[in-house]
Esterase
Amino acid sequence: MMIFIVFAALLSFVHTASASTGVTVMLSESMLGDGEVHGRVRVYFSKIKPEYADSKGPMYENGDEQDTNQVFGFDARFSSSSLSSELPEEAYGYPLARFADLNDLPAQSYNVQVELARFKEVHREGLPPTFLPDSCVSKDGSNGAYEKPDGTIYSKPVVWQFGTPLSLTLTEVIPDSTPSSRGCAGLGDGVDSAWIKTVRIQSSALSKFYKNSTDPTLEACVLLPYGFDDHPDAKYPLVLANGHYNPTFNPGGQFIETKPDCNDPDDYACVSAWYGYYLYTNWTASSSTPLENARVLVVTINHPTSFFDDSYAVDSEAMGPYGTAIMTELIPEVERRYRGLGEGWARGLMGGSTGGWESAAHMILYPDMFSYSLAACPDSVTFSRHTSVNMYEQDNAYYYNSDFKKTPTPGYRDGYSGQSIDYVFPAGDIISTFREMNLRELALGENGLSCGQCDAWEAVWSPVDEATGYAKRAYDKETGIIDKDVVEYWKKFDLARVLVDNWDELKDHVAGKLHFAAGGSDSFYLNNGVYDFQQLLEKSVGKDHGVTFTYGAHDGLGMQHCFRGYEYDADGKVLPNSITRLTYVQDVIPKMVESWVANAPVNADMR
Ligand SMILES: *[C@@H]1O[C@H](CO)[C@@H](O)[C@H](O)[C@H]1NC(C)=O
Ligand SMILES: *[C@@H]1O[C@H](CO)[C@@H](O)[C@H](O)[C@H]1NC(C)=O
């Protein structure tokens, strides 16, 4: 009761403090449920587009950094006595920073739509109760930045004439998508096939950390090896294929058991379906397949949090003990159910981007658990180049150091090449600066709660402010000024430094077994961290370190995100990323198995 009174006082303060924007957001009473609705209100503006006549308006087009629709955001709480809220003048906006800046736009009509991303009260060990997003994913979808989380409330898109009052009503809700989820095997939520199994556990480490205030379920999708039932006494190695949230088993390419009925080499969905089918036929062939001697369990895992679609699978102050939960609870349970060997010499890692960072981090931070890793186009593996930013040397993350110049640090160039059938031209065209990517997140969510990429990195690597419960910022989200104390804390996740600092213990573990790949023109500048990793390693321990680094190019031109290593077509031409991202299993796992066999301990069970 007391909390409620305090909050009501706060709300009226906010109201009187802000001048008027004339934009009112109302919650339909039918959305109220049994109490309050609290969350982030985001008001989207775009030019009029005919396709917005349907219910999918501008809020759906704002998923990616390159998008330039206008958005304003503010936190709000609705209750039966307070069903409307006004967009405050000081609300953060992107690309235009304040509502008053809209005066710079042509006085014409716009499509407008509002969404409310819901918050829940979360209790974490040693931290004050904090409101965090309910979720950053749709259970049926993938990365929450692209698919709206279940429970998101929104309005239908409306046409608004510039200069007139604007009133928006939150009347729609995205329902629980679990019933429509494709599930690990693509057959429905929790429905297994002969090959693909679902493993779900309630993590006790997460229940304890979150004091039961959030769902502690971890999910693994497990592909069983060929011959699993015919060899009931055999035990199998395990490959953890790290990557973003995905309800369906997708270790880098799908596993599709029926022949696709399409035949269009220019349609990426069709090409990808064929590779999914090739993976199935290769996997289930007794011979004449690259997987003939690679009978292993392949596992993908789902561990979304209130900060991102993925926890980064390590122990962090803000997100909690996900590394511990995955290493000591989830993987052992998969191995118990499906006859894993359960030993570090017979486990491997692969993945790209977020999954690339996880694959490097697991190899270095959990050396007893794994003995082979392909870390492709990984997120920052050292912070001397966190994308384009030197977190150790720069004063400001948004501009290079300079007395008089203010040159912005870039964030995203050329475009993502993972779904364009051919190469993307690496002209170096800047789509977003690092500052722009961050300011957009600030509009989507303050205090690091946007579910966006830069906020997610801070939630993994930063300490938590014990007064607020939010991750401390390594750089001010508005100004870019770097906090060196927070960056000092980041060093425990600077994978190059951890490796170099523990070289004597780790050198045999990584030599010949830790592999990096990155495109020479990675779209998010993630190749920079890989270069610096290599340089630090060579400066510290010499060139004879045994870690491999592959930088992707074709015809002398750098490859984009997410290069994972070279593969060639029948004419010897380098395959584009859009194809090689579909062949991780066939190409990487046989190499992993060779390495395991060559390095197996003397008494290992090799049957
Ligand atoms: C969480 O819930 C479980 C089962 O309901 C209970 O045994 C446990 O004590 C709870 N833990 C905390 C920290 O509240
Ligand atoms: C394995 O996959 C390749 C495509 O990568 C395909 O050409 C080949 O026919 C497959 N082999 C088997 C035995 O399924």
Summary: The first strand starts at residue 23 and ends at 27. Residues 207-208, 211-212 surround 2-acetamido-2-deoxy-beta-D-glucopyranose (ligand 1) (CB under 6 Å). The chain has a mean pLDDT of 93. The radius of gyration is 25 Å.
